[in-house]
Amino acid sequence: MTEDSEPKAEPHAEGDRVRVRLSESDAESELEGKLCRVVHVFAGDTGDGGTTPREVARATYRLEDVETGDVLPAVVRHRDVVPADE
What we know:
Layout: E1 17-20, E2 35-42, H1 53-58, E3 60-65, E4 76-77, E5 81-83
Antiparallel strand pairs: 1-2, 1-5, 2-3, 3-4
């Protein structure tokens, strides 16, 4: 199984393994390519009880570097992470 190159259609859950994939303008960031575990999900509540495209767009994550165990110094947007293989 290979890692996906596109963000998931629904928000990630705590414990999910993801890889940071930033836009070209941010690709020089030290966060680019890091393999991480989701430790907290910040998702906007749309009030409809479901997962809507708007909810996914507003999802952000607190991530932990899998190699070091350090929590990343920034909250990462849903569009900037892709699922990672186990």
